[in-house]
Structures are given as C-alpha cells and as structure tokens.
Amino acid sequence: MSPTLAEVVAAIEAAYPPELAESWDAVGLVCGDPAEPVDRVLVCVDPVESTVDEAIELGAQLVLAHHPLLLRGVHGVPADDAKGRLVHKLIRNGAGLLCAHTNADSADPGVSDALAEALGLRVTGPLDAKPADPLDALSVIVPAGHTDKLLDALFAAGAAAIGDYREAAFLHEGTAQFRPIAAADPAAGRHGELHRGPETRIETVLPRHRRRAVLAALHAAHPYETPAYDLHELAEEPSSRGIGRIGELAEAEPFGAFVQRVALALPETAWGVRAAGEPERPVRTVAVCGGAGDSLLRAATRAGVDAYVTADLRHHPAGEHLAGADTPMLVDVAHWASEWPWCAQAADVIRRAFPGTVDVHVSTRRTDPWTLAASATGRTPA
C-alpha cells in the first residue's frame, strides 16, 4: 500500500530536519495534499519548468527539490507568473512539491556528504559545525506497576531520543521510602508511618527545548503528588551537523590530478571545473561545500586542508584568500553540479523508508542556468 504524502514528507524531514534550516530559508511542503497517496517521486536540485515537466511525464505525485521555489516572500501565485505557473501545473497534475534546502545542507548525512562521497573522500567532520542540540539528563523514581505508563508519557513528550535510537532509558529496580506528614495525600503509605516499597529509577535524556513539556508529562503521569526526580544539564558535545565537510583521500595525489578527479566525478556543465593552485602540489585533505561556499573560505583555511571544493567562488574573496599564507588551493565547480549528488542520497532516504512501495527517480536533466562556454583556443593569457 502506498504511503500518504504526509508520511513521505515525515520520512524526508526525519533525515533533513526543518529546524536545521537557516532563518532566512524557506523549506517544507510548498503544495500538495498530505492525505493523498504517493507511489512515485522525482528528486531534483531545481524546481523549474524542465523538472516539473519531467515529474508530470513520469506520473510522480511528489517533486523533492533541493532549492526552494518561493524563497522570498510572495503575496500570490497567479498562473501568469513564472513561479505561480509551476505551482498551478503541479496542482493540476496531482503533484506536490517539497523543498529541503539548508536543512539538507546541515544534516548528517547531507548535501556535502554526497559531494565528498562522489569525490572519493572519507568524511572526518563538518567544515562549519552547527552547535549540538543541548541535552538534559533526567532521573525519576516511580513505584512498581507505573513504570510503563510514565515511560510512555516521557517518550510522547520528546524524551529518550539518542542519535538514531528512540525510547532509550536505563531502568534500575530498588526500594524507596518516605513518611507522609499530615498535609500529604499519599498514593501509597499512611500518614505518619514510614513507607517502603519497590520502585524503579528511570534515567534518560531529553532535548533542552523539550524540558517544559517533558516535566509537565512527568507530573501528569506520575502517581505521586510530589515525584522524586533529578534534572541536570549535560555538557555540549561536538556536532556532526553543519555546513560543508572535511575529508581525506586514501592517498595523496597532485593537485592537477585531483582537479581532474573532480571533473570526472560531477556531471558535465558549461561552467566546467576551474582551479587555482600548483599542479604538482600534493592533495590529501579536502574541504567541500555543496553550493555557494566562498563564505567558508576562512573556515577551510582554519581547517588546514590542502584544497577546498565548492561553487560560485567570486573574484575578490578568492583573490584575497589566495593572497594569504598557507591557504588551501581552490576548485570551483558549477552550483548545480556540486549539489546534484545529493539527489541520489535523498532518493535512498525514501527507498529505505518505503521499500518496494514508492518508485523514486533522480532527475538527470541539467538545470544549471549556464548553457554555453567559449574560449579562444590556443590564445595565451596576457
């Protein structure tokens, strides 16, 4: 049975959480009925006329695109507007559009992991790490017979998620005691008498932003009017999420050979691959950033890598970077080409979530806006 659009969106957003998106970005579902079934998806970089037509030709009910269609605020999507026309075309043909942009850039794995894999790099960490979500540690004691109810409440409120694991908790059986005084309304024991009974200590973690919800759930589900619990803030840990990746080749190779490696690994474009550096200088460690990455030139330098691969490098930032001491050599590729490897990664996310029930296609249509290149063959630059 085919999943609904809502279920497919949930699977994609689990891999590329919307909260990872930059504040200026526009990610998520642009159009589509969450209740409608989905049995075919097209994954692409750009939601443009060509890829929308491709999705309709395939009979896809969803286009998953990396770039947003409506990045800047709009007041309407009339059919005589370029972007509005695409929205109308998608709706008329029963197709939704979901965009995963900077949330896919920062996810682990994400856009730059796919680029690194295409280049044969072993990823060692993010180039510009996002702070890890701060965690709290919670320890609560609950009487025998009430453990499962309390666990379910904590889980539903957002506790007990560790990496790719859910409902993670440590349970320790023991004996608890207390003496209710006159004002108490005890669920067990009698006023003035020392009560002892079997209880379970539950230890788990929770995202700090869910603290209020988790504590509210604890108090609502716990049988005691005054639950015994401890809550501690955990030290921040290094994050594997963030923009760009640092990686290394299995063996060092001359920069000229590495540039050729990049050209062979990515789809061909009119922009091609251009580079700045000494052809014979060895390359072993490499920073990559899918999409426009000249804002991370300093980060690449701080990382101490031999080369930096990204897109849309501008004249002045690149020149200022190269003028510095011990700076990485530069490889500049077309924006679309640097992000296209992500499409296969995203397609695999859907296939793993819905094995055998959703037919996923990766668009091979070149949507890079540059279509022609010219050179004066044989001419030597002055």
TrEMBL record:
Protein name: GTP cyclohydrolase 1 type 2 homolog
GO cellular component: cytoplasm
Disulfide bond in keyword set: no
Matches recorded under SUPFAM superfamilies: NIF3 (NGG1p interacting factor 3)-like (SSF102705)
Keyword Cell division: no
PANTHER family tied to this protein: GTP CYCLOHYDROLASE 1 TYPE 2 HOMOLOG, NGG1 INTERACTING FACTOR 3
A Gene Ontology molecular function term of the record: metal ion binding
Family: Belongs to the GTP cyclohydrolase I type 2/NIF3 family.
InterPro entries cross-referenced by the UniProt entry: DUF34/NIF3, DUF34/NIF3_bac, DUF34/NIF3_sf, N-reg_PII/ATP_PRibTrfase_C
Keywords: Metal-binding
Superkingdom, natural source: Bacteria
Assembly description: Homohexamer.
